Amino acid sequence: MKTVLITGTSSGYGRETALHFHARGWNVVATMRTPRPGVLPESDRLRVLELDVTRPESIKAAFEAAGPVDALVNNAGVPSMGVFEGTPMARVREVFETNTFGVMAMTQAVLPQFRERGSGVVVNVTSSVVLGHMPLTAVYKASKMAVEGFTASLALELAPFGVRAKTVEPGACLTTNFAANAAKGGSPAELVPAPYAPWAKKTMGDFMGQDQFTKESDVAETVWRAVHDTTGQLRFPAGADAVALSQAK
Asked: 13 catalytic, yes or no?
C-alpha cells in the first residue's frame, strides 16, 4: 500500500486531495500548520501531522514521523491579491517563504529517500495564474512561476533515478478561502491605492463574472492523475478555466 504526504490539508484543495487518495486505498499523511479535530475523518490509513513548511525543524520532524512515502504533494500556499505598488515587502517575503521556499525545502527533504529507492513523485500545486497574464496577482504569480521553473528543471535532474516531478495548475475556485486569506496581506487602502481603485473594482467584477471556475474535486482528481502519470507530462491544468487557459496558451 502506497503513502502520500500532502501539505496544507486543513481546507480546500489539500483537504479534498487527502480525502481523494484515502478513498482510493492509499495511506495518507495529511499535514497542516495547526491540526484541528474533525477536519479529516479518523482512519488507520490517515494520519494528521503538524507541519510548517517555513520551519526546517518542523519539516524534519514531520518526515521522521511520516516514515517512507511514495509521493509528496506540495499544496500548502498563501494567496496574495492586490496592486503591487501597495503590497508591503514583508508580505512579498511571506508569500515566497511558503509558496516557493517551502516547496523547495519539502522537496529537498524527501529526495534522498526517493533517489535511494529509485522511485517516487513530487507534485507541486501552482496556479492557473502561470498560464495567463492576470492583474492584481503580481506577487502571487511570481511565487508560482518560480515553482514552475524549479519543477521543470528538477524533473530533468531526477529522471535518471526513476523519480518524477510534476506541477498541477488549479483554476479559480469560489468555494475556498483564497479571497479572504488574500486580504490578510494588508488593508484595502494599502493593497489597492486610491489611483488604482476604479480599475481594480472593474477587474474584479470581470473576474467574478466569468462562466468557468474550478471545483476542489477537479484539483484532487488532477493531482491523482499527476501522481500516476508515467508519460513524461510535466504540467497538469486543473478545472475548466485552467484547461481553457492552457489550451489558449
From this structure: no
Q: What is the pLDDT of residue 132?
A: 85
Sign of the Cα torsion 58, 61, 64, 67 reads: negative
What one-character-per-residue DSSP string does 110-131 give?
Answer: HHHHHHHHT--EEEEE--GGGG
Catalytic entry in 21, 96, 140, 196: 140
Q: Say if residues 167 and 75 touch (Cβ distance below 8 Å).
A: no
All structural domains of the chain with their residue ranges: 3-248
Strand order through the sheet with 27-32: 46-50, 27-32, 3-6, 71-74, 121-125, 164-170, 235-238
User: How far apart (Å, rounded) are the C-alpha atoms in residues 5 and 49?
Assistant: 10
Residue 238's DSSP bridge partners are 170
Instruction: Answer whether residue 145 shows pLDDT above 80.
Output: yes
pLDDT tens digits, 98-116: 999 999 999 999 999 999 9
In 3D space, the residue among 3, 12, 7 whose CA is nearest the CA of residue 214 turns out to be: 12
Strands (E), 19-147: 27-32, 46-50, 71-74, 121-125
Query: Residue 61 and residue 91: Cα distance in Å, rounded?
Result: 27
Rounded CA separation 124/147 (Å): 7
Q: Which CATH superfamily includes the segment(s) 3-248?
A: NAD(P)-binding Rossmann-like Domain (3.40.50.720)
First to last CA, the chain: 38
